Predict the structure.
Amino acid sequence: MPPTQAQIRGAALLAPIALLSIGPYLALWGLPDPPFPTDTGGILLFLFAFAAGVGLHEALHGLGHVWGGASWRDVQFGMHWAALTPFAQCLVPTRARSYRRTLALPGLVLGASPLLVGLGTGSWSATFYGFLMLVAAAGDVLILWILVGVPAGTWVQDHPQKVGCLIVDDAGSAPPLPVLEGSLPEDPTADDPLPFYRLLLLAVVSAIAAAVGFVIALG
């Protein structure tokens, strides 16, 4: 999917992620006062930590691709400027099992780990940071969902132009040739907007999840 549509779909996961992260913290520990830094040093430190987390997110994707058999030369880092979304793109096919691991790595390391520490110790800063990093991994969750049912040994490759991947070959023993951008067929649906009913459904699900999280927090 195009990066802008991936952002729209990922935004629908904001409320469920908040329900599963901030909701339990509020139920266990309550909201700290103040919830966010108010001094200049604290604000700058938080912004630096967030920016570093975004960079580490893509670095962990790159590490995952190398772990899956690619080389660092095969990993391209860049930015989708239209959607202000950084990316780490693997230029060669890897197995679906390692591709899934690559997708999950940043969310587990930067999101779930500090979140569990925050919930266990009562650290609001660790909890909120984990929440933000899980939000940053929402696009990875969408791709993992798309890959449900794809056999672990299948060869897949990052799409050269969009957010997502291509199924390149079945579970052959030798890596297939990379798919180049110029060899892709023209996609007539490339510029189609997300259907309104899907946007409405995503908005309704997010609203329900947010309401449930608010009730849990009050309780």
Observations:
- Residues 3-218 form one domain.
- Helices lie at 3-11, 14-29, 40-67, 96-121, 124-136, 138-146, 196-218.
- Confidence is low (pLDDT under 50) at residues 188-194.
- The CA atoms of residues 64 and 102 lie 4 Å apart.
